[in-house]
């Protein structure tokens, strides 16, 4: 098993040893993670008041370039809703009305309402992660995330973060790397 690099001032440990720092669906996904095919996931406890990306990065000395956001997108066509998770670096934003809308074959796409995203994922708002999502949702990963040596993502809870090799995220069920998924923020 290879080790992940150190991240800022975070004190990380094996996620499998700290299921108390993971939302229930995330803990289930971590139990099913095969460390022989990818490095073991690590988790770090944080102040839940600092879970939002900018505050988190500043407080824990984490560059925005290695922090990834997981956003839930709802696409609609003909009264039917389809959902996807998009994983993009904090220095970018998902192309919701272009790439994501087309991928969902939707007429209209937007960020899922907070209450819906929380209810459907079983995770806390501000901690949603690609681990443990509903099995029928695609997980769209920007190529910059997949190409990262490691990234920081949510744990399903606001009080912790996961440290994950970017390429390992592509092993998640329903994951696909999508070229042009994200565009740089202004």
Automatic annotation (TrEMBL):
CDD domains in the cross-refs: PA2301
Classification via Pfam families: tRNA_edit
Gene Ontology molecular function: aminoacyl-tRNA deacylase activity
InterPro entries the record matches: YbaK/aa-tRNA-synt-asso_dom_sf, YbaK/aa-tRNA-synth-assoc-dom
Ranges of residues in domain YbaK/aminoacyl-tRNA synthetase-associated: 48-166
The protein's name: Prolyl-tRNA editing enzyme YbaK/EbsC (Cys-tRNA(Pro) deacylase)
UniProt organism field: Actinopolymorpha pittospori
